[in-house]
Amino acid sequence: MAALTDLTIAQAGAGLDKGEFTARELTDAYLTAMEAARSLNAYIEETPERAQTMADASDARRAAGNAAGALDGIPLAIKDLFCTEGALSTAGSHILDGFRPTYESTVTQNLWDSGAVMLGKVNMDEFAMGSANITSHYGPTLNPWKASSGDNAGKDLVPGGSSGGSAAAVAARIAAGATGTDTGGSIRQPGAFCGIVGLKPTYGRCSRWGVIAFASSLDQAGPLARTVEDSALMLEAMASFDPKDSTSVDLPVPSYAAALTGDIRGLRVGVPAEYRMDGTPPEIEALWQKGVDWLRDAGAEIVDISLPHTKYALPAYYIVAPAEASSNLARYDGMRFGLRVDGEDLTETYERTRAEGFGHEVKRRVMIGTYVLSAGYYDAYYLKAQRVRTRIADDFRAAWDSCDVVLTPTTPSSAFTLGEKQDDPIAMYLNDIFTVPASMAGLPAISVPAGLSDVGLPLGLHLIAPAFGEETLLRAAGVLESAAGFTAQP
Amino acid sequence: MTETTDTQTEEIPDHLVAHFTSRIGHNSADLIEGETGPWEVIIGLEVHAQVMSDSKLFSGAPTGFGGDPNTHVSLVDAAMPGMLPVLNDMAIRQAVRTGLGLEAQINLRSVFDRKNYFYPDLPQGYQISQFSDPIVGEGRVTVDMEEGESFEVGVVRIHLEQDAGKSIHDRIPNQTCIDLNRSGVALMEIVSKPDIRSGAEAAAYFAKLRSILRYLGTCDGNMQEGSLRADVNVSVRRPGEELGTRCEIKNVNSIRFVREAVDYEARRQIEILEEGGEIDQETRLFDPDRGETRSMRSKEEAHDYRYFPDPDLLPVVIDQAYVDEIKASLPELPDIKAARFVRDFGLSEYDAGVLVAERETAEFYEAVVDADGASRDPKIAANWITGDFFRRLNADDLEIADSPVSGAQLGGLIDLIADGTISGKIAKDVFDEMFDSGKDAGAIVEEKGLKQISDSGEISAIIDQIIADNPEQADQYRQGNTKVAGWFTGQAMKATQGKANPQMVNELLQEKLGG
Prior knowledge:
The complex is a heterodimer.
Chain A: H1 9-18, H2 23-36, E1 43-46, H3 48-63, E2 75-79, H4 106-113, E3 117-122, H5 164-171, E4 177-182, H6 188-194, E5 197-200, E6 220-225, H7 228-238, E7 268-272, H8 282-297, E8 301-305, H9 310-328, H10 346-357, H11 360-373, H12 379-399, E9 405-409, H13 425-429, H14 436-441, E10 445-452, E11 458-464, H15 470-484
Parallel strand pairs in A: 2-3, 2-4, 7-8, 7-9
Antiparallel strand pairs in A: 1-3, 4-6, 5-6, 5-10, 9-11, 10-11
Helix pairs in contact in A: 2-3, 5-6, 9-11, 9-12
Chain B: E1 32-34, E2 37-50, H1 89-101, E3 109-110, E4 113-116, E5 126-129, E6 139-144, E7 150-162, E8 166-168, E9 177-179, E10 186-192, H2 199-216, E11 228-237, E12 247-252, H3 255-274, E13 282-287, E14 292-298, E15 308-309, E16 316-317, H4 320-328, H5 334-345, H6 349-356, H7 359-370, H8 378-396, H9 407-418, H10 424-437, H11 441-448, H12 456-469, H13 471-478, H14 484-495, H15 502-514
Helix pairs in contact in B: 2-3, 5-6, 7-9, 9-10, 12-14, 12-15, 14-15
């Protein structure tokens, strides 16, 4: 039998149901693996005692015939952006030093109610701002993958971000699955970099209550897992209507796993012309074409579509997201929780606390956000960006007349080395070029590992569906996954 | 209160506000005579009214006044990480109700914005308010002055916003304590046009607004507890000329202070202008102990609040049926009620105005007139309330709600006068007795044997006796000194402990002395 940590969530669930092993054994296997893989710096805080207690409770439920469902006894890693009662919740920031909430986020509570086991809190870019997991106060997380050839062979690579700890943990088999959050690509890009599945649901599908806010109109929780099926199982548990989140949508949560029929005959797959950008590496183009072929071979109809405002998505995103962030992060003032650095007077206390508590990238975005909301600049930047956002959503709405899903690459490259692009924010921001439009439109999207680059690093393909079209999205992703047959491991 | 709460309200930008006064011309009585000629004072009020609601604007925490510091605080109010606001429907209902009460336009779509600034009593680092799309648009308030004149004040808008917490600077030396009990409490900001021309008018407008809010049940109007406070914008100009630079006096929390603050501020500005100086646009505070305003911060220190729509909240969309339903539930408001009192009860406008100024007074009055299906003389009822009833309330320092005498009880007293059971004079004593004991008038009259003597035989015998005992005075009368009749009346009342029917006494006296 394979190592317990190699099992997918679905496989592990089946093993637990058959009594082949206990949740406690499964959890202990992960705890052991976590210890061995600490050099990745995936976890900010491991919670082994809690994990064992939860696993024992799961075993007791199963023994009593009361297993809560597919996730009962499954060990998960939780992104540090989720508030978890009594467990460190820092958003990867120095300014939330020692913050242990008295409350549990809706999404994590849903998971625990489904019987899942918490292994610990995983690393991330500070306040989810980053595409490489290098802005965390707790240091960078490493990608478990290494290039097999080329200039970067053997060098430390980034796992992507901001959910870099989540992606690295799942890829390195130190979590069966992980929660992530995606604001402009923070689930899908690290998913692609680490060779796993990353799913960003429709905005409003998962509650944001108890998730530390980056950009409220874009933030959305979702799963990172090794298979499309695991992603479906996790999303089903995470999603809910939550009266405590006014932007949560009151729609029933379907059985996403049941949507994985493998049958996409007649499905219309849109291929947007505007995603063919200058300078995209040939291997990315080639993989995209493979994806088109796989879906066509499975019976889908391929449609050329146009999303004309695509090129404005990234610049508009880097106005809207920092604007909201500059306001959302105002509460970190050293007055009630987290870090406080005293000054001579109130203003100096604010200045010192925030100067010391926030890292460079967070400061950069707070400054950008403050600037674009300022009197005299608001119309030219924020308002205009919001108009662009409407146009992007309109583009997709028009596209759904002629297609059911859209297929694109997830990222313009494979994982890069630690330190690369660190001093070039624009190059870093370009990582999100394919993922940001779906975020701006609030649409569900998924990255599926689809192949290896020339130097042996994973690459992802990206599907986008209409709002609350998660079932179609997952069905198409499942077919893509089967066709790609991606079995490589770090 | 150790420190007033600074909600840091900034004026609405010009492009969003009909800043032009709708009041044309001026009343020469309102002009202030300076050294160099007359000045006109231009005043607009931004009134902050705490919404009557059990819970806060965006959290379920209670809103009751008092309570130990930081005991009425939810995770949302303390702006803990990951917390989200959820709109309290009651606040929307109350704002719409207020808008309808001020004959204002109700906006079926409105938006909550974030107003960003740092202060320790503002945990989120922003106040959730309404900026470009408030829930209520233009309306108006008719204000009556004592001289029987009235004028109209335009309402620019009403928007909903969160209150801030309270900073307490004097509890621990060199430290500031923060009490978040008020943090997140729902306020309505009611912005007037600059249609007000004197301190007295400003006070009258503020009082009228308070009265309407209390009728509507949307704000308790309790100024000591901070439920109602005004930011007063004052500028002066030569009659007919362009508006001058204004100063904003923050957080004035009594009707009297509004008048005093305006009067002082207008004088201050006139003095500066007459000495050739300029007015700095600034925020000022009124010091009631010294009766003066002083600078709080200048425009240069003004914040850039970086308003933008709160992405945690959806636009508020209501439909006309909702508005109509609230409209149907509105009580009779003071202006309408006063007109009815004049029309149906024959009261003077002045008396009607006094009786409707407070909802409780009007309700009490109507109870006196109508209680138990009675139909008492409305003028007599009005006289009792504005006379003896108010006198006793004042003397005992009581609010009408705490009155030991109910409207029905006062009505019962009036009935006893009307049917001749007691005289009007005895009734005053009975009333005081009622106020002291809470007993019904009938019971007191019974207990103390105060029933009026209306038996002509009994009174006749008493008068005969008095005339017989005082032949000198009787002669004086007969010789034409009719003034002495009053003395005889007094003697008769004295002999009956005031119980004799005074009208019968006078009639019989005339008959007997004259005969």
